[in-house]
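Observation: inputs received (chain + flavin-adenine dinucleotide).
Thought: call the complex predictor directly.
Action: predict_structure
Action Input:
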Amino acid sequence: METSAATPGTPIELDAAFQGEQLRPGDAGYDDARAVYNGMVDKRPAVIARCSGVADVIDAVGLAREKGLPLAVRCGGHNVAGKAVCDDGIVADLRGMKGVHVDPQRRTARVNAGVTWGEFDRETQLFGLTTPGGRMTGTGVGGFTLGGGYAWSSTVHGLACDNLISAEVVTADGRVVTASEDENADLLWGLRGGGGNFGVVTSYEFRLYELGPMIYGGLVVHPIDAAKDVARAWRDWVEAGPEEVATALGVLLAPPEPFVPPEVQGTPVLGILAMYVGTADEGEEALRPLKTEIGPPAVDLLDRIPYTAFQAIVDPFSPTGWLNYHGGKHLAGLPDAAIDTYVDQGRKVASPMSQALIFRTGGAIARVPDDATAASHRAAPYMWHPIAAWSDPAESAEQIAWVRESYAAMEPYTTGGVYLNFEQDEGEAHVRAGFTPEKYARLVELKDKYDPSNLFRLNQNIAPSGATR
Ligand SMILES: Cc1cc2nc3c(=O)[nH]c(=O)nc-3n(C[C@H](O)[C@H](O)[C@H](O)COP(=O)(O)OP(=O)(O)OC[C@H]3O[C@@H](n4cnc5c(N)ncnc54)[C@H](O)[C@@H]3O)c2cc1C
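Observation:
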């Protein structure tokens, strides 16, 4: 689709009936409203349309379509590629569309488009229920679910998108449609991992599971010199044990916290995060090896804690507004050589908020048939997730180089597949690597059906077959 940016100085007006706030350059609150998680992103929309409901979303979509303006769709604003905002176009800002309605009998939740995972967990945990959701409280339900959604509980309950029962969607031509197994099932298939390519989702219906309010989990920390041996022992334990053990490795700089010995603070360490997806009693038993055989650790913060506390465990390491560069690659396995490379690259970490993570995946994720959803690369048993996050722009080149060098070093151990929700904007070939070739072709067919003019292009874009590049 040919989009023309708004002429600077010409105000873009939404329909008079638009209920939400409209923010334009110069308005109080405009700069706060255009800021996203990644401080590298500095976009200046012509108007930020803070939608209050479905009708406002239809107006924002209609204005972009009629004027041929770029249209960005924003939920939590966590996308590191900064796709939630745009220059000289319209941002459909969904953050005002709050509301989580839990049906404890059916074990479902209906969730409006602006909800974050912290808000979701607060409501569902009242009933001791969960669904696989973001591992940081500020992440939006929207981008997370539509891009797949890897949660701590995913090895048992699948990806977030696997638990999406239905969605209400505003399409490019301004219709409101339901996507479910019974209605527009092809659209539901695409929303389960195909990103924001097919319309604006205004509400989601999720399947829920019993978990919490108390679970067993937390963090242990090991000196970096022991990291290779500890990571091998962790891998062997993970692969021999139950999939209820939700866990990740992380190389990071030890924080200046009272629980970290002073001589270790600021130096690289290996952390192991773990939660048992089951009762706290079962978890205490299942995670005991992290206190004994695998170590013992230098710092042990494993305990009975609220599920919501574990869901917030990485929040202190995820400050909004820092400069960020991330990657997400599926690993074919974790042979000793991959562990050595991971630790060697990880210990070059050079910022207090940077981390090199390896998540255990597989289990219920891999049991969903590959063609059942757009989400791809399900068979991979691990995901490697380097995160560079820094505050001084003078460090940008060095920080980005760390991630890119790590890519090259870890390449032999990847499946070649990427997880697009963790990735920067690297162009079409990269988006293709998010899917199998068959699925990419099917997604293009879906795009031709639901958005042939590529109105929804500010995302990890699947271009329709008629698109000019
Ligand atoms: C600190 C941090 C922690 C993270 N943790 C995890 C994790 O544990 N697991 C994981 O899988 N990912 C994780 N992510 C990645 C996350 O899934 C993506 O960044 C995702 O895009 C965030 O969704 P959002 O709604 O916050 O993003 P936004 O930036 O608001 O949206 C991203 C894109 O999603 C689309 N979108 C959002 N809402 C809608 C909608 N209603 N309709 C149509 N399209 C929509 C749009 O294309 C938009 O550009 C994390 C990211 C960060 C920064």
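Thought: report the result.
Final Answer: The pocket of flavin-adenine dinucleotide is lined by residues 37, 73-80, 83-84, 94, 113, 134-136, 139-140, 142-144, 146-150, 195-196, 200-201, 318, 421-422, 458-459 (CB under 6 Å). The chain is about 25% helix and 25% strand.
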